[in-house]
Each structure stands twice: as structure tokens, then as C-alpha cells.
Design a protein that fits this description.
Order of helices and strands: EHEHEHEHEHHHHHH
Structural class: alpha/beta
Strand order of the largest sheet: 2-1-3-5-4
Shape: globular
Number of strands: 5
Radius of gyration: 16 Å
Largest sheet: 5 strands, parallel
Length: 213
Amino acid sequence: MKIALINENSQAAKNGLVESVLKKVVEPMGHEVVNYGMYSAEDENQLTYVQNGILAAILLNSGAADYVVTGCGTGEGAMLACNSFPGVLCGHIEDPSDAYMFAQINDGNAIALPFAKGFGWGAELNLQYIFEKLFEGESGQGYPKERVIPEQRNKKILDEVKKITHTDLVTILKSLDRDLVKGAISGVHFREYFFASCRDERIAACVKELLEG
């Protein structure tokens, strides 16, 4: 699985810490971490939590990433932004039990973490335990186990609801403010990482047009 890491501007200084803990946990599991930044508070390209949602949607819908780890000061804004888009099911995760139950009950493809609120002494341990519970084993297996059938059914219903309540991503990208979208995909390594992994030609063409326009 290819896991994308995205940080917005207010918490960009923590990108290196989050990346190191994420890699420590998931690389032995056989997963790959791709860091889309921001890499520091001084990055030329500044991402807002709204742009985190745009970038997450592009990566997940195009197949360039299988999972997104993101967040903001409280994690709430990043979660709301991610869930504004089709093909993204993002949970707000504060602790390992949140991570485990989101993975097993909701079977999402993105999480939003609070990187300021409650992010104090031992924060790196909390991150480690969150990532361990989030990515261990196969997701969507239910919790508690006797609830697996209705939980899996509800997840499928939610996926179908989102298909109706959201239009397709290319239409959305072309309808949004161009500078807002372009800012979300102008990170220093975006072109290198995205086009090497994108599996959707229509989204790739749209992103290329936005970048060159």
C-alpha cells in the first residue's frame, strides 16, 4: 500500500517527526510512505487544510495513493476538507482505539490527526500506537466481531451515498478556484511523485492542465 503524508502550514514543522514515526511502523509491514509535504514552515508552497483535502482527493481518486495521513491543529478542518470530496472517507483520530475502530468499522482511506491540540509529551508514542492499530491486518473486519455484517453493509451503503451526493473529481477540480487548486498541487515534489504513480489518465490530464495553465 502507498501511504501519502500531507501537512498543512500551521503544523508543517512536525512533518519530519510524523514521517519518521509513520515509516518506522509501516515500512516493516511492506507499505511505502510518500511525503507530499509541507516539509517545513518555511516552504515556498504553503498548504491550507482546505488544500490538504484537495490534494488528498487527487491522490486517492487517481490511484497515486491508497491511503492519506493528514491533519491540522485540531484535525477537524483537515477531516472536513477531505470528506468534502468523492472517493475520500476520512476519520478524525486522536488515539489508538480511534484508529483501530475507524479501520475495522468504517474502513476508510484517510485520517486527520490533531498535530497541535493535545500534541505534547509522548506525542511520538501516541503517533506510533495510532499507526500500529490503523495499519495492522486487514481493515473492515468489524468491531466487535459480531457486528461485522451490519458494519460492512453500512460501509457499502455510505460508499453508494457518496457516489450520488458528490460529482466526479475532474468536474470539481475544474469548477474550483484555479489558484486554490494549483496551490494544492505545487509542492516541490508533487510532479515527481504524482505522475509516476497516477493510474487515472483523465485526472492526470486535468492536473497537468492546471499546473501548466
